[in-house]
Amino acid sequence: MLPTIRFLSIALLVFFVASSVSPQDPRRACKKSVLAASKPIPTLRYSCSGAKDEWDEKILKLPARVRALKLVMAQLETLNSNAWWQASTDDLSVCDFRKRAGTLSAEEQEKFDTNYVFKLFGNDHIRLVLLSDPCYQTEYSGSVGFLLYHTGTKTLAAKSLDGFFTRADNAVDIDFAKLGREEIIEISTGSGGLHPELTNYYFTIDPKTNRAVPKNLFEGDKGPTNQITSAMLMSDPADVGLPVGSEALKIIDGHSLVKSFSVYDEVFEGGEIDDNGRKLNRKALKWNGKIFK
């Protein structure tokens, strides 16, 4: 996947996407076959009237917004051609950026690597579409995410992220794992900012509806939940005396769920880990066959 997320600490915090392209790599190109298969991604549109400001969470329940989300979901379900699903999301993103076939110029490639906002992720049968919200948290990339599942000649959509916003660029990604015969979908997000956090969301495909539904993998305060949050560990685990594999929320490894993973809490007093001046406590959650706890 093109937008590989890297996290570094420089004085305060720099949270950015490092390009997977090295100077030796050939320039990306919009292939003719992919351009022919490309479909316009719907745009979320609705009136912002009725909200005090873009941070007002009441926006999320505006009747105009609810109607717009239903319309967008119906539009997304028209993305059902085999050619579109067979083209990689990386190639589709390049064509979405260039709008015409051909190799990106040096200037185009630089703009693509630094300015393009990725909105399509996934594989040949499950994809995440990330749409900008015109009214909510617009200064912080306010977005809505839909998971699409392609089966036969149909595409089924389900809302998976709502009211998401971040101070980081391209701070969303997707991964997959198998749990027996069940496919697990991971949507990973980052907050950016001075106290960066990671939040992952997990879904599976309902065999009856063929739509994505939450997969509750974690023990929560109010019962099982499909999401989990951790402070971001910006150091290499070995550099702060932690065992290999102690990265925050490393829950999928090699398309399988791990047996245990690390969650970090940032604290302002005490703290067993000094992560570049930030004090963290670590907790390991273990898989018991049904849930992590």
Describe the structure.
This protein is α+β, with helices and mostly antiparallel strands and 293 residues long. It has one domain. The chain is 15% helix and 36% strand. Strands 9, 10, 11, 12 and 15 form a five-stranded antiparallel β-sheet that branches. The chain has a four-stranded antiparallel β-sheet with strand order 5-6-7-8. It is globular, with a radius of gyration of 20 Å. Mean pLDDT is 91; it is low at 1-24.
For the record, the count of structural domains works out to: 1
Instruction: Report the structural category.
Output: alpha+beta
Runs in which pLDDT lies below 50 for 5 or more consecutive residues are 1-24
Distance between the terminal alpha carbons, to the nearest Å? 31 Å
SSE order in H/E notation? EEEHHHHEHEEEEEEEEEEEEEEEE
The biggest sheet amounts to: 5 strands, antiparallel
Residue share in β-strands? 35-45%
Shape assignment: globular
Q: Rounded to an integer, what's the Rg over CA atoms? A: 20 Å
Count of runs of 4 or more consecutive helical residues: 5
Question: What number is the mean pLDDT?
Answer: 91
Q: Keyphrases for this structure?
A:
single chain; 293 residues; 5-stranded antiparallel beta sheet; 4-stranded antiparallel beta sheet; 20 strands; 15% helix; globular
